[in-house]
Every structure is written in C-alpha cells, then in structure tokens.
Write a structure and sequence with these properties.
The chain is mainly α. It has 17 helices and no strands. It has helices at about 10-35, 60-70, 75-100, 105-110, 115-120, 130-145, 160-175, 185-190, 195-220, 225-235, 245-250, 260-285, 290-300, 305-310, 315-330, 340-355, 380-385. Helix 1 (about 10-35) runs antiparallel to helix 3 and helix 3 (about 75-100) runs parallel beside helix 6 (about 130-145). The model has no long low-confidence stretch (mean pLDDT about 90).
Length: about 400
C-alpha cells in the first residue's frame, strides 16, 4: 500500500466507496439476471460459431463449448462471465483507492450519470461487451501503478503480453471495442512521456488487433444465413421466443443510422461528461492544460468513427468517461491536495447535487428525429439503486 495517509474525510470516502461498489455490483448484476433473455443485452454475447467463424462470436462459442462439455446453459455462462467482469472492475477501483487514496471528488464522480450510474439509469444499455474493456483496463491501470522502470525490451515486459492477449480476445469479441484501445496507452504516456518501449508495448498489440479486425470484417462479417443459424442454435434456451436475437441479426448488416437528433441530444451530454473529467485530470495528474486537453482530444477523436457506425452514442460517452477517470485516478500523485477547505467542500456539494441527480445518459435515442433530454431527479436516482 502507498504511504499516503487517510484523513478522516479520506476514511469516510473509502467507506462510502466500498458501499457504492458493493451496492453497484449487486444492482448491476441483478439487472443482468432480469435481462438474461434480452435481444441486445445478452443476445450479442451469444453469437457463436455454429455456422462457422464469424465476428463477435468468441464468447458465444465459449459458452456453447461449456454447454457441450459440462451441460451448463450458455445463458448462465454469459451471466457468470458478466458477474466476473463487474467484480474485476469494482475490485480494481477499490485497490486503486487503497493505494492512491480516495477523496470526496472520486466518490462523487463515480456515482455521476456517465460513470457507474449509467448502467442503473438506463438498464437497456448495461451489460454489453464493453465491460470486458472496463475490467481489463482497470486491472491494467492498477498494475501500472507498481511498474516503475520497465525493460527496454518489450519481450521482457508483462504489459506487452497482457495487451496482446487482451486486445486480440476483445477483437474477436466485438469490433467496436478496438476504437477504445488507445486508452491503454494513456497510463504509460501520461506517467513517463513518450518512451519507445512503452509505445511499442502498446502499438504492436494494437496493430495485431487491427489485423484481426480486418480479417474478420473482410472474410467473416456474417450474413442472414449465419444469423439465422446462430439464432436457431439457441432455441433450447428460448422459451416461447423469450431469448431475443436482435443483436445476432445485426450480422446481416442491417444497422440503424444516426440522425441530427443524436447530435442535439449527445453534444451537451458529452460536454457534461468531459469537462469535469478534464478538471479532475488537471487536479490529480499535474499536467499542463494544453497537454491534457490535446491528449484527451486525440483519444476522443480516435473513437469518432464508432459514432458513425453504431447508434449507441450514450454508451460510447460512458465508456470514454469511465476510462479517462480510471486513468487519471491511477495517476493520482502524492502532491495532490489531501484536505479541502470548508468553502471548497460546500462548493463541491452545491455543484454535485444538480450534477449527480438531475440528468442521465441514454444509450441511444431511437429512430425518430426527436430531441431527447433525459432528465432525472433524486427520487428516480435512488430508485435506480433499489435492490429487489
């Protein structure tokens, strides 16, 4: 553990974080169980290789193999995988808090609409394959805290092998995750600046994952025949059509398109997400405003093509926001202020109330050209946490 000492406020914040992570873990997994037959939340995970190799099919194939070997329902295998991913995410955040110290700011950011509350405010956008990204990235950022002087040879570095495995697996799981792989370079770059060994440690696995994506998209993209075969393979676990195949049918290439309402809806939500994260990054990482702003802008620009490919814009904002937060949290330095003045605490609380309770991010806005502003209120916020 770091030598950082916990103040009284720090101990209170740590207890609050433990409570938040525990309740979040219970509630988000409860949502996954309730939606275990959902056509998107679970359906995308169940794409498999029944009709041959196809993009997005790795985890569905693993689930089907578990059924063949052990008789376990593929749906239960997917649920267990989700529970594990959420557990790694929550555990890694807690470990970071123990090592780096935790304050009121971090707890408030974690329960804001773009972070953990995203899944609870809009359950329809929860439990997607980005939880693999969250789990692997949070654990990676935690391990990097202890990586002081890496070897110049990438073949002697643990993170090189970690990234090549993680990125390749996720490329087989969902092509959209690749747009967020540059986030893995941030803990390396922001910690030590440009370093050839760091750059190659990230770049080579990244290029391998891009090659995998290119092969899958050119030769194994999928079609209606493949989608129908996969959906039929899941019939034993679909009672009266309860197991939806919506995400599976996207393999046939019929993707809904974004419209002008998306820009109107999500631009203010993007700003509401990124401005506080930028301020937090400036506070804890000690970077110049130009350096940090440019780094965040480039990283976000690399995700822009995804907004043209898929309509789940709220998910992409949520993913970017949480990855930025974990990055900056892992870089929290010993010179970060440990105490707050009474005026600072009151200001934070006054701003936190409307920021936390009165808005939320939808995962998408649908096909109709309507401006959606998803409001929230304290009663609805607390209801979203309620366990059954």
């Amino acid at each position: 553990m770091s030598s950082r000492k916990f103040s009284i406020l720090g101990l209170i914040s740590l207890v609050a974080l433990c409570a938040v992570l525990y309740l979040y873990f219970l509630r988000v997994n409860e949502i996954q169980f309730d939606f275990k037959h959902h056509g998107y939340i679970t359906g995308d995970w169940l794409i498999n290789y029944t009709n041959g190799l196809v993009r997005r099919g790795l985890f569905g194939e693993i689930a089907m193999q578990f059924h063949r070997w052990f008789g376990t329902s593929p749906v239960d295998v997917i649920l267990t995988s989700k529970y594990l991913a959420y557990g790694i995410l929550c555990g890694s955040i807690l470990l970071l808090a123990l090592v780096k110290g935790i304050g009121l700011i971090e707890v408030l950011l974690l329960i804001s609409p773009w972070a953990l509350m995203y899944d609870l405010n809009d359950p329809g956008g929860s439990g997607r394959k980005e939880i693999l990204l969250f789990a692997s990235f949070a654990f990676f950022a935690f391990l990097q805290v202890f990586s002081k002087s890496p070897s110049k040879s990438i073949f002697k570095r643990w993170d090189f092998y970690y990234l090549i495995i993680v990125m390749t697996v996720m490329a087989f799981a969902h092509e959209g995750l690749i747009f967020f792989f540059p986030f893995f370079y941030l803990p390396l770059y922001l910690k030590r600046g440009f370093n050839k060994s760091d750059f190659l440690t990230f770049c080579i696995p990244y290029l391998v994952s891009l090659l995998v994506l290119a092969v899958l998209y050119v030769f194994f993209k999928g079609n209606k025949e493949t989608a129908d075969a996969i959906c039929n393979s899941l019939n034993p676990w679909s009672v009266n059509g309860s197991l939806g195949c919506d995400a599976i049918h996207l393999l046939a290439g019929k993707h809904p398109k974004a419209h002008i309402g998306f820009i109107k809806s999500f631009t203010p939500l993007l700003l509401l997400t990124m401005i506080p994260i930028y301020c937090y990054g400036r506070w804890v990482a000690g970077l110049t405003k130009q350096h940090l702003m440019l780094t965040m802008a480039i990283t976000l620009l690399l995700t822009v093509p995804l907004y043209g490919i898929a309509i789940d814009w709220g998910r992409w904002i949520h993913v970017s926001g949480l990855l930025f937060f974990i990055t900056f949290f892992s870089l929290k330095g010993s010179n970060t202020p440990r105490r707050y003045s009474l005026v600072t605490v009151m200001l934070i609380v006054c701003l936190a109330v409307p920021y936390t309770f009165y808005w939320r991010i939808p995962h998408t806005v649908g096909e109709h050209k309507v401006f959606w502003w998803w409001t929230q209120d304290p009663a609805g916020y607390l209801e979203a946490w309620r366990l059954k």
